[in-house]
Design a protein that fits this description.
The chain is an alpha/beta fold. It contains 15 helices and six strands. It has two domains: 100 residues, no CATH class; 251 residues, no CATH class. Strands 1, 2, 3, 4, 5 and 6 form a six-stranded mixed beta sheet that branches.
């Protein structure tokens, strides 16, 4: 019996020792899992958020340069998306507050800096920076899209058409349409799908813009090798316009011609897009008649709105001047968030200054080009002729248009 008792005690001690070793191993793993780098432990004393960002609030001009928006707009944005950025603190680590996550996300868009650079500046882990950027973009899409990029309605189209006539002298216009390449890193195992004519990897941003440089309809994510026409044809906008499911107002006479034949509402675009009854493009060729040159000038004048909108977008969010080192799905989210913020921030008082900044840049967003034939219907050609005649009529001509061609 004595021998048995000794043996049982020995086994018990071994089990106890094994249990203690196991608990110590679990503790070490948990401790290493929640370990914070010594550099990041200095976040409050040396991190940009607690010092540089706090100081920038005292200098409105520099705050705008750093975040590409005012402190007041930053606060308004935080009030909208802040609840979506909040996370629960644990006994092992305090959660990053929404205000700091928003600062990191907006600075990423405003500068195009890498996650590594932002991690050093803000004394955060790279994973925390990455998660913060994705959280901010997702929150902007979830909370703000319905207000700043809503689905088109009949009333919205009428408002856009009135704006184009009053500001850009193009009647019955639903918006200016164009596409741009967003430069991305080469996705793994993607072949040549994202490889465009400029020999870079990209996705396409297709946008319809109103008379005030606001994005009204966008589509992002098509392969970089696609042409403008192909992207448009496969887009929800192109399909909706073709099937007449987008609540476009009915045909209406052109201004000053109440007794004339009603004309459809149209979008304006460059030569990369197809000519449709609802989509006007310029007359092709060089040896054009005077009236056709006038039409091309008037269409180009209205179409430049979308070029300016892209210029403002990229000048405000410098991420578009750089190659974005994210998976294409994540790039889609970044681009969508940037377009929503563009509409949130757009202001007539700032537009010209931002456009001047854009014109000083040596790098610009790459346009998408057409890569195929473009056959138009007789109806589309006739509608273009009606607009062409209107621009030569007393009701539709401009005093300076002859000098411009």
């Amino acid at each position: 019996m004595c021998i048995i008792a000794v043996a049982e005690a020995h086994v018990s001690r071994r089990r106890t020792l094994a249990l203690l070793l196991l608990l110590d191993l679990v503790h070490q793993r948990r401790r290493s899992r929640f370990w914070v780098h010594p550099l990041n432990q200095q976040r409050r004393s040396q991190g940009d958020f607690y010092h540089l960002v706090a100081e920038l609030r005292l200098d409105s001009q520099r705050h705008h340069q750093y975040f590409r928006m005012s402190a007041e707009k930053m606060d308004e944005l935080l009030s909208l998306v802040g609840p979506e950025l909040r996370r629960q603190s644990t006994s092992f680590r305090a959660a990053i507050e929404p205000k700091q996550r928003l600062a990191v996300g907006i600075r990423f868009l405003a500068s195009g800096d890498s996650f590594v650079s932002l991690a050093f500046s803000y004394r955060l882990g790279q994973t925390t920076v990455r998660n913060s950027v994705h959280m901010v973009c997702a929150a902007i899409e979830k909370v703000m899209m319905g207000q700043y990029l809503p689905p088109p309605t009949d009333e919205m189209w009428k408002t856009i058409a009135q704006g184009f006539w009053e500001k850009w002298n193009f009647p019955n216009c639903l918006g200016a349409l164009d596409g741009k390449h967003i430069h991305i890193q080469a996705p793994p195992r993607s072949g040549s799908q994202y490889f465009n004519y400029k020999k870079i990897f990209s996705i396409v941003l297709l946008a319809l813009v109103d008379a005030d440089y606001r994005f009204r309809v966008i589509q992002v994510g098509d392969f970089g090798r696609s042409s403008d026409g192909a992207v448009y044809a496969g887009s929800a906008l192109g399909i909706g316009m073709e099937r007449r499911t987008l609540h476009v107002p009915p045909h209406a006479p052109l201004p000053g011609a109440a007794d004339a034949t009603p004309v459809p509402h149209v979008m304006v675009a460059d030569a990369a897009f197809p000519l449709k009854p609802y989509l006007m493009r310029p007359y092709p060729g060089h040896n054009l008649t005077h009236r056709k040159r006038i039409f091309n000038y008037r269409l180009s004048r209205a179409r430049m709105v979308v070029e300016n909108a892209f210029g403002i977008l990229a000048s405000r969010w410098r991420i578009f001047y750089r190659r974005i080192h994210l998976h294409p799905d994540k790039v889609d989210s970044v681009v969508l968030a940037a377009c929503i913020l563009h509409n949130f921030l757009i202001a007539p008082s700032e537009n010209q200054a931002i456009l001047d900044e854009a014109n000083q840049q040596t790098t610009h967003m790459v346009p998408v080009r057409d890569m195929g034939p473009n056959r138009a219907s007789r109806e589309a050609c006739n509608i273009r002729e009606i607009f062409c005649d209107f621009f030569m009529s007393p009701e539709g001509s401009l005093a300076w248009q002859d000098r411009m061609v």
